Structure formats: structure tokens, C-alpha cells
């Protein structure tokens, strides 16, 4: 008699990734700089999330991350000036930058840089993130798990008041439908302009 096949799609997410750490984040191409961002990875390894004070929550799907590497010192003088303004001089950046390369393919890619407090944190996060990316089994999970994943993403992308913007809901369910139809459905459900976020609540178990 054949043994039942257990489809184990999860990779163990290190505890320090779930607890999170504070990094300064920047993007050289579009000159984005956010100091003191709290980066985390959820317990299932679906998302790399971050939030800085006064900003909306942001999400990057781990399935879109192509590589994790130690970043080089930025060449843009504006980025260097912004880092120096928060107490990180150019001479102190060696070994403290995590480069996250992501994209839907190997042509259209983007780079997000995370500046850690010290080289030890950088090394730990580079190794930790490398251990959870390229999890191709996670692309074949059950429909219920996919639905849970969508809810988790909505809950992470909260506004400055800790609530889910309606536009985030429309982006999730607007496939083949207009936003007007979605707004009408929300109105019929007597939902407010924004929804209370459950980002800090337990995500529950996925089967």
C-alpha cells in the first residue's frame, strides 16, 4: 500500500526574522530614503514587510525576491548625505548594507537596500533571507492558503492609523472588474471608508 504524500511547502523562518530589526532603507534609482524602518518576515515566509514612523506598511513578496547579497556603498551623494544625517557616515557603511534584488523576471528588477546598525546584523539577515527565498513549493499551495495569504497582505499594508485602505482591497479583487463594482459591493456590506487592521493579531494556522 502506497504511503500518503505529505506536501510540505513551508520553510522554517528564523525567529529573528519574525521578530524584526530596524534598518534604514533606500532605493538609488528613484531616490527613496526611509530611516528607522522595522523589517519583518511573517511566520510562513510569504512576505518581507517594513514600516517607518508616519508611513504606510509596505510589502514585498518573498517569491519575487531573486537574490540577497551584501550591498556596496551607495554612489549617489544624496543617499550618502541622507545616511550621514542619521548618523551613518560613508566610512561606517562597509559591511552594513543588505541588497534585496526582486522582480517578476530577470530583466525588470529593482533593488532595495537595507542599512543595518552593525555588520553582524547584516550577515545574519543576509543568511536568514537566503534560507527562505526560492521556495517554489509555496507557489502551489491550496486555494484556502492563497486566500489567507491575500488577507495577510492586506493586513500588513495598513495606513498610518493602522487601518486597511479601501484601495488596497480594490487592488486585490479588481481582476476583471472595475473599481466601481467593488466600491458598490463594499457599500452593500455597510463597510466604512477604511477597515480595522488585524495585522498584529495571530495569523493562525495554515493547512
Q: What is the rounded Rg?
A: 19 Å
Q: How are the strands of the largest sheet arranged?
A: 4-3-2-1-7-6-5
Note the gap between the termini: 25 Å
- Tell me the total number of β-strands: 9
The CATH topology of the largest domain is given as PH-domain like
The global form is globular
Question: What is the average of the pLDDT values?
Answer: 85
* SS-derived structural category: alpha+beta
Helix content: 25-40%
CATH structural architecture of the largest domain: Roll
The largest sheet is: 7 strands, antiparallel
Low-confidence stretches: 193-207
Protein name: phosphoinositide phospholipase C
Domain PLC-beta PH: 12-140
Enzyme class: hydrolase
Pfam families: PH_14, PLCB1-4-like_EFh
Describe this structure in words.
The chain has 207 residues and is of the alpha+beta class. It has two domains: 15-137, PH-domain like; 139-196, no CATH class. It is 29% helix and 25% strand. The protein has helices at residues 15-19, 77-85, 119-132, 143-156, 166-173, 179-188, and strands at 21-27, 32-41, 47-51, 58-61, 65-70, 97-103, 109-115, 163-165, 194-196. It has a seven-stranded antiparallel β-sheet. It has a two-stranded antiparallel sheet with strand order 8-9. The longest helix has 14 residues, at 119-132.
Task: Summarize the structure in short.
By secondary structure, the protein is α+β, with helices and mostly antiparallel strands. The chain contains six helices and nine strands; from the N terminus they run αβββββαββααβααβ. It folds into two domains: 15-137, PH-domain like (Roll), CATH 2.30.29.240; 139-196, no CATH class.
Amino acid at each position: 500500500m502506497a504511503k500518503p504524500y505529505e506536501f510540505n511547502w513551508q520553510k522554517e523562518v528564523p525567529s529573528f526574522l519574525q521578530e524584526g530589526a530596524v534598518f534604514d532603507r533606500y532605493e538609488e534609482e528613484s531616490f527613496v530614503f526611509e530611516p528607522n524602518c522595522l523589517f519583518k518576515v511573517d511566520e510562513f515566509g510569504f512576505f518581507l514587510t517594513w514600516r517607518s514612523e508616519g508611513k504606510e506598511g509596505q510589502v514585498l513578496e518573498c517569491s519575487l525576491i531573486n537574490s540577497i547579497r551584501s550591498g556596496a556603498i551607495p554612489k549617489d551623494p544624496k543617499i550618502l548625505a541622507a545616511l550621514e544625517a542619521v548618523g551613518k557616515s560613508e566610512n561606517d557603511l562597509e559591511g552594513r548594507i543588505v541588497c534585496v534584488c526582486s522582480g517578476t523576471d530577470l530583466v525588470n528588477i529593482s533593488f532595495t537596500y537595507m542599512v543595518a546598525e552593525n555588520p553582524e546584523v547584516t550577515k545574519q539577515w543576509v543568511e536568514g533571507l537566503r534560507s527562505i527565498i526560492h521556495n517554489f513549493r509555496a507557489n502551489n499551495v491550496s486555494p484556502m492558503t492563497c486566500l489567507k495569504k491575500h488577507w495577510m497582505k492586506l493586513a500588513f499594508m495598513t495606513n498610518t492609523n493602522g487601518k486597511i485602505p479601501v484601495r488596497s482591497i480594490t487592488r486585490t479583487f479588481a481582476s476583471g472588474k472595475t473599481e466601481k463594482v467593488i466600491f458598490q459591493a463594499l457599500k452593500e456590506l455597510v463597510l466604512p471608508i477604511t477597515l480595522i487592521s488585524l495585522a498584529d493579531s495571530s495569523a493562525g494556522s495554515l493547512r
